């Protein structure tokens, strides 16, 4: 997976994956009896073609062989997505991991799957975007549908709108995509507003909650709980696929949100609980954005792995000393001492009341007014 490397200075540096795996190991997560680590394989062209245009796959292969000849019309060789030799194989491996997870769910060989190297949610059918070449979340969803799953719920808690996955299933009533993100008025990709609700055949299955810049844990979790559980229950999915980009953290430079690792861990707990309650536990979780590679991504995704394996790591758990020493020796900085940020996670329940002066509440209400009536839900009350 470390071959997914645009450049040494690109924000999407694969060392975040190496540090996550090392931290999971030092925490003893990979030694748990119910957890199995599987090497990801390359997705085939036929598999990639289930969600991507054949011409696009051909373009990626061409740039992969000749990175000196970019294809900017396809988003390849741009500032966000620099071309490099082997980009097809590296991207297909990330995709293959999520496909393996979907197959394991279908074959009942796994109940929960985590691919923290995945979450490439900006890639569209025919174009690379936002550091994403092949959309592994969409591929996993399509594999589930092809395997007989009737409805899949996709939940995206990355700071950036999950536009690629949404666009691929825009007019497919079997897939509900819910994206909770910073508003497109202040952040890439500039989309994901409340009135983007899906195509003519799938009205209400694209759900967007666009919160304002500087939203912290309290507003973020209020927005999640005011929209996601209610729609998840109404939609009644058989499997949940989630994207856990951790770039909404206050110490991540690629968003304007103010979240903590504590809040991101809570999101994972909440999504796991939804899968248990609605899908008999069937859940595929991916990584995504996350550009603070020493302090945030490894802790956030280690929490995700721990939650998926059934025993969350307490926030007060000390970060293993050998891991901290390794990071210090490699980067010259000391990472956090504990697995949490000691944040206050209290948030106001939506049932407490709507405050029209609160910009987060206005965002929530905009989404509820657009979507809830389409599922027989009252936008004001549950």
From TrEMBL:
Ranges in coiled-coil conformation: none
Keyword Nucleus: no
Pfam families in the record: Hist_deacetyl
InterPro entries the record matches: AcuC, HDACs, His_deacetylse_dom, His_deacetylse_dom_sf, Ureohydrolase_dom_sf
Pathway in which this enzyme or protein is active: Ketone degradation; acetoin degradation
UniProt entry keywords in alphabetical sequence: Acetoin catabolism
Every Histone deacetylase domain range: 10-305
Highest taxon in the source lineage: Bacteria
UniProt similarity note: Belongs to the histone deacetylase family.
Record protein name field: Acetoin utilization protein AcuC
Source organism: Paeniglutamicibacter terrestris
């Amino acid at each position: 997976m470390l071959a997914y490397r645009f450049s040494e200075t690109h924000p999407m540096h694969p060392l975040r994956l190496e540090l996550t795996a090392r931290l999971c190991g030092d925490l003893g997560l990979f030694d748990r009896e119910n957890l199995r680590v599987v090497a990801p394989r390359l997705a085939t062209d036929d598999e990639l073609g289930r969600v991507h245009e054949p011409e696009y796959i051909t373009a990626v292969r061409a740039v992969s062989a000749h990175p000196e000849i970019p294809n900017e019309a396809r988003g390849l060789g741009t500032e966000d997505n620099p071309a490099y030799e082997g980009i097809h194989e590296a991207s297909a491996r990330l995709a293959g991991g999520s496909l393996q997870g979907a197959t394991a769910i279908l074959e009942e060989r796994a109940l929960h799957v985590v691919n923290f190297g995945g979450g490439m949610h900006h890639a569209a059918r025919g174009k690379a975007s936002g550091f994403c070449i092949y959309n592994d979340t969409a591929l996993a969803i399509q594999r589930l549908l092809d395997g007989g799953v009737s409805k899949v719920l996709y939940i995206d808690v990355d700071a950036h709108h999950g536009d690629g996955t949404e666009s691929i299933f825009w007019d497919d009533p079997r897939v509900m995509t819910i994206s909770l993100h910073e508003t497109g008025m202040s952040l890439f990709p500039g989309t994901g507003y409340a009135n983007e609700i899906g195509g003519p055949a799938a009205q209400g299955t694209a759900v967007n909650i666009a919160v304002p810049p500087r939203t912290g844990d309290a507003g973020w979790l209020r927005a999640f709980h005011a929209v996601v559980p209610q729609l998840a229950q109404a939609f009644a999915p058989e499997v949940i696929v989630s994207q856990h980009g951790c770039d909404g953290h206050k110490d991540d430079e690629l968003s304007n949100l103010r979240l903590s690792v504590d809040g991101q861990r809570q999101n994972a707990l909440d999504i796991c609980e939804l899968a248990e309650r609605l899908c008999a536990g069937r859940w595929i979780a991916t990584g995504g954005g996350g550009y603070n590679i020493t302090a945030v991504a490894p802790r956030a995704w280690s929490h995700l792995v721990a939650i998926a394996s059934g025993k969350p790591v307490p926030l007060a758990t000390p970060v293993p000393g050998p891991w901290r020493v390794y990071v210090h020796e490699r980067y010259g900085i000391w990472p956090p001492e504990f697995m949490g940020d000691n944040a206050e996670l209290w948030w106001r329940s939506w049932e407490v009341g709507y405050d029209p002066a609160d910009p987060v509440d206005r965002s929530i209400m905009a989404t509820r007014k657009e979507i809830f009536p389409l599922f027989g839900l009252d936008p004001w009350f549950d």
